[in-house]
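=== RUN LOG ===
request id: a7f3
mode: sequence -> structure
chains: 1
length: 223
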Amino acid sequence: MQFDVITLFPDFFTSPLNSGLLSRALSKNIATVNLVNPRDFTTDKHHQVDDEPYGGGVGMLLKCEPIFAAVESLSVLPRREVILMTPQGEPLNQSLLKELATNTDQLVLICGHYEGVDERVSNLLTREISLGDFVLTCGEIPALTIINGVTRLLPGTVGKAESLKFESFEDGLLDYPQYTRPPVFRGWEVPEVLRSGNHKAISEWRLQQKIERTKLRRPDLLT
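=== RESULT ===
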C-alpha cells in the first residue's frame, strides 16, 4: 500500500511512523508513506499556501494551486483514492478501513488547515472522510488515523492475523471484556467462567457480553 500525504507539517508524522506496528510494516515494505509539502510547489517568493476567502469571513483558506501541483506530481497506481480529511466527509468506521485496505493500492491523503481548502480542490477528490462530528486543528490527525487503521489490516502487519477477526465492529458488535492475571485485584475477580477451561461456556459468555455491552454503549449498532 502506498500512502501519499499532502501536508504542510511533514514532521508531524516522524514519531508515529517510527513507532510500533507502523514502523515494522514500513520496514517490511508492507506499506510506504510519502510526505509531500504543498509549500514546495508554490511559485511566489513567500511560498504562500493560504489566502483570504472571497466574500469575506474569518480565517484563511488553503489555495488550490499548490495542492493541485502536489497531487499531480505523484505517481498514479491503478487502484487509487484521493481523499480530503474534512469534518464534512463520510464518517470513518471499520468497514471503510477494510474497504480501503482491500480495494486500493494508493491512498492520497490531503490534510486541511485553517478554515479549510478552496472548493475547487474537490475536483481532485474521489472521496472525503471525517473522524466524526467535531473539528480538529489539522488534517494530519485523521490522515494518521487512516494510515494506522488501514496498515494494521494489511497482510503481514499484525503478528496473529486471526486476532483481527475478534475485534469490536467485526461482527457488528463491540468486543467482550477481557482479563489477565492476577485473578483477583483489589477485590475485583476475573469471572469464574473464564477460568473454567470450558471453551463452549467461555464462547457463549463472550457472545452474551458482546451483545449486552453493545446494547448499553452503542445501541445504534443494533438497529
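=== NOTES ===
The chain has six helices and nine strands.
The chain has a mean pLDDT of 93.
=== END ===
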